[in-house]
Specification:
This protein is an alpha/beta fold. It has 13 helices and twelve strands. It has a six-stranded parallel β-sheet, with helices on both faces. Strand 8, helix 11 and strand 9 form a beta-alpha-beta unit.
Length: about 350
């Protein structure tokens, strides 16, 4: 057997990633025992012998180079999913950020491949080192094998959570900070209008935060039960209108800034009838017009790149770190939809 057996040879023969081979041969406790045995058996059968001098050289190269130098990152999305258009817009923004930081971002549309094996082969051909998943409500086929082969991170999650680290906005704190700002501006009767999206990974955080604000901060006389509406609510939604007329909120805290358009299409004038703010302000063009908790996914992407760097350096794949969730704070922005009630009181 050849004396020049490499880790890549072992990975190919074992059907696992290079990172998994590296961890298995180091007896990394985070690698499954069965996987370690499989890799070591293949290494013994092929006659692999580690080269100590080469290991020292590799360590010196890691310490002497930029971690992102020449690193290709795949941006994985479902081109036929419900989030397809927003994913394409997000990719353009992420690509600009990646270029500034020295990475190459490569878009990979799952809908163009018949199975995950073809996706992995294509990414390996392109020299992909790390993978970033965007928000996907669904995937055309099981894709968690990607997390077993690459250092991967998910930027936000929807109803589908991949077996890899997740970097997401702090939904709970978003509601808390929004509520605090509304109180500062003099609003007492706060109505919360949320999309009824039970499959959403972060829905429980939003509902939990609203519950805490209502029961531990809000006086009983000013408590308004939150209202859940269908994702595709129509202007003739009688339940929303009944909820508004019954509870008469001073301000509505929406799940998304698009709810402002829904309320206006129902004939409500904002902020004349009631003010409006959102816990999910993501459109930079609307800053200053709509008040809300601004959450920029580019910040999440930058954090994802740092995590991928750390994983590549330590020889970890996405599945090795699948229990990691990192919460990122957003920033509150005031807007014309939310006038300061204190100014009105002072002027009167």
């Amino acid at each position: 057997m050849s004396n020049h057996i490499t880790l890549r040879d072992i990975a190919k023969e074992s059907g696992v990633s290079l990172a998994t081979v590296s961890r298995a041969l180091r007896d990394d406790p985070r690698t499954a025992k069965a996987t370690k045995k499989k890799v070591k058996d293949v290494a013994d059968r092929l006659g692999y012998r580690p080269d100590p001098a080469l290991q020292v050289l590799i360590e010196r190269r890691w310490h002497g180079r930029r971690m992102n130098e020449g690193m290709n990152i795949a941006y994985v999305y479902n081109g036929k999913g419900i989030n397809a258009e927003s994913c394409k817009i997000e990719y353009r923004r992420f690509r600009e950020t990646a270029q500034k930081l020295g990475y190459t971002l490569i878009a990979e549309d799952l809908s163009k491949y018949p199975n995950v094996e073809k996706v992995i082969k294509r990414m390996e051909t392109k020299g992909v080192t790390g993978v970033v998943f965007t928000v996907m409500a669904d995937a055309p086929y099981p894709i968690d094998t990607i997390n077993e082969r690459f250092a991967s991170v998910s930027v936000n999650v929807s109803s589908w959570k991949p077996e890899c680290p997740v970097v997401m906005h702090d939904e709970f704190q978003g509601v808390e900070r929004a509520w605090h700002r509304l109180n500062q501006l003099g609003y007492q009767r706060i109505g919360t209008l949320l999309q009824d999206y039970p499959q959403s990974y972060s829905m429980d955080q939003r509902l939990g935060a609203v519950f805490c604000r209502q029961h531990y901060v809000q006086p009983t006389k000013n408590r308004i039960p939150f209202h859940l509406h269908p994702k595709e609510a129509q202007p003739n939604d009688k339940k929303i209108r009944t909820w508004i007329e019954r509870h008469k909120p001073q301000v509505i805290l929406g799940d998304d800034h698009e709810e402002l358009g829904l309320l206006q299409s129902m004939g409500y004038k904002i902020p004349e009838d009631f003010a409006f703010a959102t816990i999910n302000m993501w459109n930079t063009d609307l800053v200053g017009e709509i008040a809300g908790y601004f959450r920029d996914n580019v910040n999440l992407f930058e954090r994802a790149l740092k995590l991928i760097n750390m994983m590549v350096r330590s020889g970890n794949t996405g599945s090795d770190q699948g229990d990691l969730i990192e919460m990122v704070k957003g920033n509150w922005v005031d807007g014309a939809s939310l006038p300061d009630l204190n100014d009105k009181e002072n002027s009167s």
